[in-house]
Design goal:
The protein has helices spanning 3-15, 36-50, 56-61, 65-82; strands at 87-88, 91-92. The chain is mainly alpha-helical and 95 residues long. The protein has one domain: Non-ribosomal Peptide Synthetase Peptidyl Carrier Protein, Chain A, CATH 1.10.1200.10. A two-stranded antiparallel sheet has the order 1-2. Helix 1 (3-15) runs antiparallel to helix 2 and helix 1 (3-15) packs across helix 4. The longest helix is centred in the C-terminal third of the chain and has 18 residues, at 65-82.
Length: 95
């Protein structure tokens, strides 16, 4: 399952919305009806699922599903590039 699909699934389950309405440009608060508590829950779920950290300052700037997907994709690529335990013979490993 792609990063985008995983995020859409987490958004749907955490915010209790139909996955069919989750577009890349959908805003968490305006379009998907999230409140601040739901956003915190979503951030925690994404951090847990992808084993990354999303700092408060970064989270405050993430407003759409597409921005979240880009942030997670970048964080995963950065982790792969900087953590030698995640690389074997030039191939990325998920631990």
């Amino acid at each position: 399952m792609s990063t985008e699909c995983q995020i859409r699934s987490l958004v749907a389950s955490t915010l209790r919305v139909d996955e069919a309405i989750i577009r890349p440009d959908a805003t968490f608060i305006g379009d998907l009806g999230a409140d601040s508590l739901a956003l915190v829950s979503l951030i925690l779920a994404i951090e847990d699922q992808f084993q990354i950290d999303i700092h408060d300052e970064e989270a405050a700037e993430i407003r759409t599903v597409e921005q979240m997907t880009e942030h997670v994709t970048f964080a995963l690529a950065f982790e792969d590039a900087t953590d030698p335990r995640r690389r074997v013979r030039g191939q990325s490993l998920r631990v």
